[in-house]
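Quick one - inputs below.
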Amino acid sequence: MGLQESLASGKFVVTSEIGPPKGTNIKEMLHDAELLRGRVDGINVTDLQSSVMRLGSLAVCHLLKEKGLEPIFQVTCRDRNRLALQADLLSASVLGIKNVLALTGDYASLGDHPQAKPVFDLDSVSLIGVIKKLEAGTDMVGNALSGAPKFFVGAVVNPGGNPVEAQIIKMEKKLRAGATFFQTQAIYDIGAFEKFMNRVAPFKVPVLAGIILLKSAGMARFMNKNVAGVSVPEPLIQKMAKAEDRVKTSIEIAADLIKELKGLCQGVHIMPIGWESKVPAVLEAAKL
Amino acid sequence: MILSQQKPLEEIVRSLEGEKNIFILGCGGCAESSGTGGKPQVLEMKGGMEKVGKKVTGYSVVDFLCQKALVQSRLRGKAKEVKEADSLLVMTCGVGVQAVAAVSDKITHPACNTIPLGGMRGEWKGSERCKECGDCVLDLTGGICPLTACSKYLLNGACGGTTKEGKCEVDQEMECGWRLIYERLEKLGQLEKLRQIYEPKDHSKMMPPKGLRLTERWALEQGK
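Output:
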């Protein structure tokens, strides 16, 4: 079952992600992907995450597809202009890649090539519009295509955005442009997320709540200070600080969050950030 | 020297929808040299506005609209006419429009597109404020330019990178431009403008018209 069918079936959907390596050694990454086989409904492949140069998302999506896994091709606007983005989308289509997650992308100066020229020729909203035009059989300026791609298009939203109302307005624009599912920034504050979900309920679009596995109290504090829109409540930080077995506690926290999220949204998107091997245990603890 | 071109009148009229009383501001600096914001153009605009049924409550040509203090004192001198107006129509470059928006709580409409020549950034020091994009969007963003106020020059709203303090995650010293735009539009009661989906920029408009690329001084020459 593909991601689109999973979401349509009404089940609680789980997606996770793998980050391509810096270099050509793909053994570990493919091993991580295998751990997710049969456990998740889709696997995001990040596009030079954190603006760090590495193996590309398109090639990795192709490898996953060949192995019978369900890749979600993350496409950002940071590194490619409108010509290259359209070309890569057509390339993805002929490689059988169906799911696309359209993002603006992190700024270039946050990564390992701060000297790079940031592109941002399109943004997440206009990129979604371009995808819909390709699907309708033309490029973005209206020239006919010989053969049109078909995608399942997703987008992201930050429920902790400041102000959140501006994020909701933008989410509605993405929806109007053609996004059909959403993944969110990491959620730790269930109460705030519930309020957000109530606000976006009229959109009637599936939302997969983001889960980032906490590795330590220090990591939680770092995110609170540096990652926009992420706020880990103090009790969770204390729990991590006092944990005898940090992995075990981290898995418990993630599983508890997932259980609470079950009644609020249509699924979860687990971002393990190096702890890929812990994902199956999280799903078991969450009874998924 | 900053070059500007007047927007098509129908685009200006469209931007003034629902607003009956207009105060017009011209600029005696670069816009006068560009032939877009001097007194003759301001008077022509006044006539154009009246023809489409608007009431022009007043007008003023300020020496340099990019000089905020100057703009502020001029608007104070015309307080009655300005107060009567639903909005301000500003006939100059993107720096001038933003300077007016920065000192006034009135809705501010650009009447011009700014086209590139490089050169100085007006009298408003501190940072780059106008990208000379050739297709001014200040009308929809509360008089704050997203191309210069947002690190990623986004056109469709903030990315997820606004910090708790409302700064840009790229540079914590910098305000999130889209937060400023949001707050400004909220204050003006124009949040619905955020819902418009912008098409990607036409980057060919960021080049000066071919015939005008011959000399940097073309505008001065045009002015004879």
